[in-house]
Design goal:
Elements: H1 12-20, E1 29-30, H2 36-40, E2 53-58, E3 62-68, E4 79-85, H3 98-105, E5 113-116, E6 119-121, E7 124-129, H4 135-140, H5 148-166, H6 180-191, H7 198-209, H8 211-222, E8 228-230, E9 239-240, E10 248-251, E11 257-259, H9 263-278, H10 284-305, H11 311-332, H12 338-341, H13 344-350
Parallel strand pairs: 5-10
Antiparallel strand pairs: 1-2, 2-3, 3-4, 4-7, 6-7, 8-11, 9-10
Helix pairs in contact: 5-10, 6-8, 6-11, 7-11, 9-10, 9-11, 11-13
């Protein structure tokens, strides 16, 4: 989903408690009154204010909370990101398989991005990171806080670390499941099942795609190659932008999988497509600026990652990412991306 934790306005703690008891009105909370000042005015390491929640997003799929840590925490770990299952999530968060931990730990960071493996505590997953907002949050809500250079460097670092991730030699690789996102999409296309507006959007999308095209999409998932270790949900919304000289952090662990070559490349490209599409809801001058930022980040990412080794599979996986956004927005964000759905058939046909 193209949504990321951001600095909260007042009252976030009370709404968090409301969500904890699964109140219907608290099903989706995005502290969307995000401005540069809300980051600058939030509690920061070294201040006299008590450390606490500095970012919060609650939706049907994932609950995300960001807390500032003690002033003595290193720059790489100044914030703790905590994830829990949303009230409509069909499965719990997963642990990183034990046999992967050593391999992932050995993957050294580059100058712009590192892996943050995290750990499980109860039903929540925790990560340490050098910032309180993701690259997606900055691209989605323009501000003067992050420069275009910082965003492009983080995107470049993301490309480099994903390239190295795909080159890891992992024992028992095929014991890992296939990537979660495409499997969730295929289930929805088959059944129409899902919370909130998922059923309505399914009917609309089926009318636009047609049965033959839908069956072909499902076959792409069922026949997806299993060649290498993949992040599983890599993207701008999983990359925390650094607020210091430390490298940005790619959060990883809960959806690592065995998938096709360049799966992560395609998943990120799909997110870029969705992010660019969403700029049409911005004022013209703001949209133009954001599209240029998105282009700069995409170019930096592609240069760092390198060319695809299978253009057909990469194109198909990119289209799966766009279709999953249509589902997740309807099911978990109460947002109907009808205009994106009208382009779905064309996007799929381009990937054939």
């Amino acid at each position: 989903m193209s949504e990321s934790p951001i600095a909260p306005t007042s009252g976030a703690s009370a709404r968090w408690q409301a969500h904890a008891v699964r109140g219907a009105a608290a099903r989706h909370l995005d502290e969307a009154a995000w401005q540069p000042e809300s980051i600058r005015d939030s509690p920061t390491p070294g201040s006299s204010r008590e450390a606490g929640i500095v970012g919060l997003v609650l939706n049907g799929y994932l609950d995300t909370e960001i807390r500032s840590r003690v002033p003595s925490a290193p720059e790489t770990d100044r914030y703790r990101w905590s994830f829990g299952p949303g009230i409509d999530r069909p499965e719990p968060l997963r642990c990183t398989p034990a046999h992967l931990s050593n391999g992932l730990t050995s993957l050294t960071s580059n100058s712009h991005c590192r892996l943050s493996l995290g750990w499980i505590d109860g039903d929540r997953r925790h990560h340490l990171a050098p910032g309180r907002a993701t690259v997606a949050a900055h691209l989605g809500r323009p501000s003067a806080v992050a420069s275009s250079r910082d965003l492009a460097q983080a995107a470049s670092g993301l490309g480099a670390v994903l390239k190295r991730l795909g080159q890891l030699d992992i024992a028992d690789l095929h014991e890992l499941a296939a990537p979660t996102g495409p499997r969730r999409l295929a289930h929805w296309l088959r059944t129409g099942d899902g919370p909130w507006a998922a059923g309505i959007m399914h009917d609309r999308l089926m009318a636009l795609l047609g049965r033959a095209r839908t069956d072909e999409i499902i076959s792409w998932v069922d026949e997806m190659p299993r060649d290498q270790l993949v992040h599983g949900r890599a993207g701008l919304a999983s990359t925390v932008l650094s607020e210091s000289s430390a490298p940005s952090a790619l959060l990883i662990g809960d959806e690592v999988a065995c998938g096709p070559r360049d799966f992560d490349l395609a998943w990120v490209l799909g997110e870029f497509l969705v992010t660019e599409h969403l700029t049409r809801y911005l004022p013209d001058d703001q949209a133009a600026r954001q599209r240029q930022l998105i282009t700069d980040c995409r170019d930096a990412f592609l240069i760092a990652y390198g060319p695809s080794k299978d253009l057909v599979t990469t194109g198909r996986t990119t289209s799966l990412r766009v279709l999953l956004e249509i589902h997740d927005s309807a099911a978990y964000l109460d947002r109907m991306l009808d205009d994106l759905a009208t382009q779905a058939a064309e996007i799929v046909d381009c990937a054939r």
